Amino acid sequence: MQRVRVSSQQVPVQKLGDSQMTLSPKFKLAAIQSRLLDPFVESELSLRGEPLIPGLPDDIALSCLLRLPVASHSATRSVCKRWYQLFANKERFFTRRKEIGFQDPWLFVFSFHKCTGKIQWNVLDLTHFSWHTIPSMPCIDKVCPHGFRSVSFPFEGSLFVCGGVVFDADCPLNLVMKFEVQKNSWTVMRKMITPRSFFASGVINGKIYVAGGNSTDLFELNSAEVMDPQKGIWHPIANMGTNMASYDAAVLNGKLLVTEGWFWPFYVVPRGQIYDPRTDNWENMADGLREGWTGSSVVIYGHLFVVTEHERTKLKVYDMNSDSWKTVDGPPLPEQICKPFSVNCCNSRIYVVGRNLHVAVGRILSLNGSEKNPSFLVQWQVIEAPEAFANLTPSSAQVLFA
Fold first, then answer.
1. pLDDT of residue 2
2. How far is the C-alpha of 362 from the C-alpha of 190, rounded, in Å?
3. Domain 118-401: which CATH number of 2.30.40.10, 3.40.50.620, 3.40.50.300, 2.120.10.80
4. Contact (Cβ atoms closer than 8 angstroms) between residue 132 and residue 154
5. Degrees (nearest 5) of the Cα angle 259, 261, 263?
6. Could you tell me which of 369, 368, 340, 365 has the C-alpha nearest to residue 352?
7. What distance in Å separates the CA atoms of residue 54 and residue 106, rounded to the nearest whole number?
8. d(CA 120, CA 113)
9. For residue 101, what pLDDT is reported?
10. How many CB atoms are closer than 10 A to CB 323?
11. pLDDT tens, 185-209?
C-alpha cells in the first residue's frame, strides 16, 4: 500500500472564481509555462511577426534549431517564448524533426552504478558526441541489470526492455517496457508468458523473439515466445529442445542464433541453438560457430562479427562456408575500453561501450566483394565519456534514430 504524507498545516481555502484568490509565485510560474506550451501560442507569436531567429525565414530557422543537441535544450529554451515552445516539450520537438525528415543515430546505453547498483539509461548523440538522459524505466527497485534483455526498432525510434531478475530473490520477471524517442516516455506493455532472465532476444521481420534463460531458482528454460509490437500479444513458439540460458544472441539470415557462450575456466564446450521462424524449428548450431563465439556479436554486411573477450580483444568474423572464424585486419580494441562490454552496430559501424561508458567506434571496411573468401578491416575511434560516468558499468546498448 502506498503511503501518503498529509501536512498538518492549515491554509485558507479559496473558492473558484473568488475575486480575492491570488496565485503564489510557484503557481504563477506553472501557469505561465502551461500557457507557453499551448500550441495556439506558437501560432499567435508567429502571426505577431516574432521570428524564431531574427533575419531568417521561420522554415530555415526551424531547420537550424531542430539540429541542436538535447543536452543544450534546458539553456536554449530560456532565449524567448518561441524557443521555449520548441524546446520545453520533447514530443513536439521530435515530432517537428520527424516532419522535416531528420534521422540522426543515438546510442542508448543501459548502465548501472557499480557502488549503489542504481540503473539508468544514458544517450550518446552520435552526431554531436554529447550525452543526455531519458526518464527512468517504470520497474521495481533492486533489479539485476544484467538479467534484462533489450531490442530496438532503430528507424521507428523505439526500444523494448524485457524480463529481468530481482536482486537477492532469484525471482525472474516477465516485464515488458517500451520507450519511444518521439514521446520521450516509457509504456508498460503486456507481460511475457514466462518470467525469465539472462535469455536470448532478437527482432526478425518486425517481431520480437525471446528464448531460454533462467526461471525461478535459476533453473534453465527451454521455452520461447514471440510478440508482434503492433498487437502487443505474446505467443509461444517451438521449444528449444534443450534447457539453456543465453550469453549472447544474433539475427543472421532471418534466423535467431543463441549461444551459451564460453566462460572461464573452459570446463565444458558451450551449447548453441538456431531458430528458423519460417519452419518454427530449432536446430543445433554448427561446431565451429558455437566454439568460436567468444564475445559479443553484431551483424554487418550480412556477416557475424564478434568482439572477443579472451583473444586480446580482437575483432573476428565468422565464415559460414568453412565454419570457422577469421581475425579482422586492423588494431585490437583500444585499451581505454575495458570489460565488461556492450556492443551494437549501425550500418558499417560497430559501437563498443566499456566500463565508465567510454565508447569505441569501429568502422568496418570490406576489402573485397567475394562471398567465398570475405576480408574486412576495422578502424577504431574512441569517444571518452564525462568524468561523471566514472562509476558506471554498461549492461546493454541500442542504436535508435531520432
1. 35
2. 37
3. 2.120.10.80
4. no
5. 165
6. 340
7. 31
8. 8
9. 83
10. 14
11. 999 999 999 999 999 999 999 999 9
Q: Is the pLDDT of residue 92 over 90?
A: no
Which residue spans of the chain are classified as CATH 2.120.10.80? Answer: 118-401
Distance CA 221, CA 197 (A): 10
Task: Name residue 171's amino acid.
Answer: C
Q: Are 194 and 173 in contact (CB under 8 A)?
A: no
Q: What is the pLDDT of residues 66-83, one digit of tens each?
A: 888 888 888 888 888 888
The CA-atom distances, in angstroms, between 328 and each of 63, 78, 302, 311, 321 are 40, 49, 15, 12, 17
- Alpha-carbon gap, residue 213 to 238, rounded angstroms: 15
Beta strands in 216-341 (DSSP E): 224-228, 233-237, 248-252, 255-259, 272-276, 281-284, 295-300, 303-308, 315-319, 324-327
Q: Give every CB contact of residue 30 below 8 A, 6+ residues apart in sequence.
A: none
Report whether 191 contacts 161 (CB < 8 A).
no
pLDDT of residue 34: 41
pLDDT in tens, 124-182: 999 999 999 999 999 876 888 889 999 999 999 999 999 999 877 778 999 999 999 99
Q: Residue 86's CB: how many other CB atoms inside 10 A?
A: 23
pLDDT at 47: 42
Helix axes 58-65, 90-100, angle to 10 degrees: 110
CA dist list (Å): 42 to 32, 80, 132, 377: 14, 12, 26, 51
pLDDT at position 123, please? 96
Tell me the C-alpha distance between 89 and 87, whole Å. 6
Phi/psi for 33 (5° steps) reads -65, -40
Sequence-separated (6 or more) residues with CB below 8 Å from residue 215? 172, 194, 195, 196, 221
Per-residue pLDDT at 391:
93
Specify whether the CB–CB gap between 285 and 255 falls below 8 A: no
